[in-house]
Design a protein that fits this description.
By secondary structure, the chain is mostly beta strands. The chain has one helix spanning 56-63; strands spanning 3-12, 18-25, 28-30, 36-39, 42-53, 76-82, 85-89.
Length: 98
């Protein structure tokens, strides 16, 4: 069984990111104010984002198709505007709680 952990509650917005900003966890859009806020260039979630810890042996077995990954692993995607263009960060890096 895979091991999951609380990765943190923050994702850094890129320099120059402007609204509208849309945040998705596992493909589902999250409402601002209810589940996260934007503070000082960071998306701050009200709960920790859960990631899966995958050992090198498990990763190799998955790459060989021997078995899959069954732990909880949340991905955060961010859609934002910069310079008049819409940009996307897929599987944004979650920063540990300070």
């Amino acid at each position: 069984m895979a091991e999951s952990y609380e990765a943190g509650r923050r994702v850094r917005l890129p320099s120059g990111a402007e609204r509208p900003i849309h945040v998705f966890i596992n493909g589902a859009e999250q409402p601002e104010g209810e589940l996260y806020s934007i503070q000082d260039g960071m998306i701050v979630f009200k709960r920790p984002i859960i990631k899966e810890k995958v050992s090198r042996l498990r990763w190799t077995a998955m790459a060989l198709g021997l078995f899959g990954s069954y732990g909880e692993n949340e991905t955060v995607d961010v859609h934002f505007t910069r310079g008049g263009r819409t940009e996307v960060i897929s599987d944004a890096k979650v920063l540990p709680d300070a």
